[in-house]
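Annex B, item 7. Sequence and structure tokens for protein A, then protein B.
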Amino acid sequence: MSLRRTPLHALHKELGGRLVPFAGWEMPVQFGGVVSEHLAVRRQAGLFDVSHMGELRVTGPDALPLLQRLTPNDVSRLVPGRAQYSALTTDSGGFVDDIVVYRRGEESFLVVTNAANTARDLAWIRERGGTAAECVEDLSDETALLALQGPRSQAILQTLTDLDLATIRYYRFAEGEVAGVPGTVARMGYTGEDGFEIMVPADRAEGLARRLLDAGSPEGLVSTGLGARDTLRLEAKMALHGNDIDEDHSVEEADLGWIVKPDKGDFIGRDVLVVQREHGVTRKLVGFELRDRGVPRHGYPIVVNGEPFGEVTSGGHAPFLKKSLGLAYLPADACEPGQAFEVVIRGRPVPAEVVPTPFYVRPGKKKKKKKKRAAAAAV
């Protein structure tokens, strides 16, 4: 089966990107090196091609009721120009996919899906939405998505647009032109840094990427691949579908209960998630650091109190923090910071410890205090 290519494929090759298969696409994993790209995003800025992500347009009088039924977050709280992180949930409260929902108008929405899941998500929406899902249209092939991330992002982007970027707050967006290209500019990202995601017509993406790189070069902007995107999102404890979240783990277990709004009314998986919220879960996704030499990788076994319990869902060496850290599901009574357990690396048990997350918080941003919920096993 041939790999799909984004509109920036030729530019990636020109810039020396190392191209690898990813979710059915041929994508750059790195340009100058994962560590140098990671540090550039933390200190200056990086430009990512995320055009492999899917875009579904949902319009008409059935749009809001459909999204309310399919997702746990409250779409009715959105006003035009705002977006929210959410999910398509299963009957058991697990993840079909994690998504971002944009509200463009009273009856106009856009759903951004993960690359490998777009066709599956669309089939799920049509299956569970019935006739209401006739209002859903796949715009993925005609849309490109660029992510400009890092502390210099606003300064770089502002030179190419008349939009007042300072007024676009987190998870807000505006329609306008960037370097003469019409598109949508949203303040969000998957790195833990300030930044923007820019959605434009696919046939205008390469020209825009070149303009961004030219404008950002004096500010230290670099082309950035999927390798750094993964290490950046891990430091920020942003979940990866297929690793940290999937159909077998519920939204509450994944420590993402803040996107669940039971009071909005019925939605797929609501009953299970309400019970878990009221009575607690048996396992939970936590962050950890190794307390000895080694690097925890996805799939490495975990031992809690001498007994095997799952595996590392995401892990690696954090280039900015200079630590070996990861994510894993642990028993509910072993999730508090300071809890000790072991990660088995090449047959050797290595001490690890649960730590508060996110591991990295950008300068000037305060950590949100989490509301304590019951952690006891559901009964």
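Protein B:
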Amino acid sequence: METRPVAVLEIGSTCIRLLIAEIAGGEWRVLDWAGKPVALGRDVFTSGRVSRESFQECIAALKNYRELLGGWGISPREARVIATSALRAARNRDVFADRLLRETGFSLLILEGIEENRLMYLAVRHALKSDLPQFWRANSMIIEAGGGSTEIMLLRRGKMVAAHSLRLGTILFDQQYRQILGSVRSQERYLNENVRNTSELLNVEMDLSHIRTLVMAGSDARIAANHAGRELNEYCWTVEREDFIRFVERVRNYSIEDCVQKLQIPYVEAEGFIPGILVYRLFLDRTAAARIVVPNVSIREGLLIDLALGVDPELQEDFFSQITASAVNLGRKYHFDEEHNRHVADLCLALFDALIRDHGMNRRERMMLETAAILHDIGMFIRGSGHHKHGQYIVFNSEIFGLQREELDIIANVIRYHRGEPPAPADIEYIALQREERMLVLKMAALLRVADALDRGHSQRIKGIRVERRAETVVLCTGETYDLSLEKMGLEEKGDLFQDVFGYKIILG
């Protein structure tokens, strides 16, 4: 099988890193890599902007990388260039991206925090492989303390509970608070208060004291693992809890200069090292983890794996299952009727599969429909009256692992129109979508209305359906012998959008 090398460039808070690899059969192999320290985080978290000096530094580094890529036969437009929290927070990020394209030919994608979580999960999953089976059997946390944000994922027996991007970054802390707080003890008290408040919110989703495996990602964790851990496999280290604590106690009073000299790390990484390692320690204190796992991978490897997903259906299905698991746990947070919502989701998927020729949606859109169905009644937490609108608000303002902002917007709109009036020109959130996205909302909402009508009494009486086409009618056959008048009435009330979108009248046979 002929393969071409691919390149991933990450513009981070402290460094611009390049990874060149080849992908074949769902696997990848590193061919070359490079890194250039930069001070983007120091700029942005002090002034809110990328300075002229830092921009020129980035341009020079990327022009050098462009020459390196040329030797591998990779053009700038073929490279995947991503940026994380520093550029995400910069007021002049759009200008930065535009000038970068004009001067180097690289097209920049600035990742949202939830997308960073998704790519890190893929990288961690690959790094652990089958060498740590307890990770998939027990409760665990994945945490990455970065320069401008801290990314956290909670997993219950290997299934995603929640994913969050917190504005708690090591360079952010160093630039904004180190001088104000003064002593190391005051800085630690400030960090401890932030971690305590965050932990209280996380405990609502999963009791942190039940976590048995703590996965620490990021460069600060890798430095600690190099000094206090042992290799598990080529992509991963492990560190015993007490060994990690001893390492933190040894370095916690280091100055930036001490970190550079004694730990042999670049100055730009040393600036945020102590806050980062303290954040990890503070979260460790709130768990029951006896051992720490430190993957030697990053979102760059996650992006490589993502590129290979199309040829690995098993990995893709696992990823989709994590998205729906995250949606279920969001529903539990708002005390949804889990039996009803899961049952409606099953009926939705049965309709989707039977009518695929009519709606033309793909596998990822099937997962989005399932997510909308799982959460369609989540607004009941606020109030039964108008719960479709309340549900739209909750989902629009939530994070669901693996879903990008545009997909959450679509799902929130599907929930909005699972009952009540169809979309109107005055509905701003709907009109703001692209035309193709609006059609997805209509198709998904039409299927969801039908599935919801089939469980109008929240009793799960209809266990399954078989779809038959008869002229201009779609008949749903259930095989049930008991009275279905309530469900037929619900379908009569909610089947109008299905007829408008697909051109068939739908009835319960």
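Comment on protein B: The chain has a mean pLDDT of 89.
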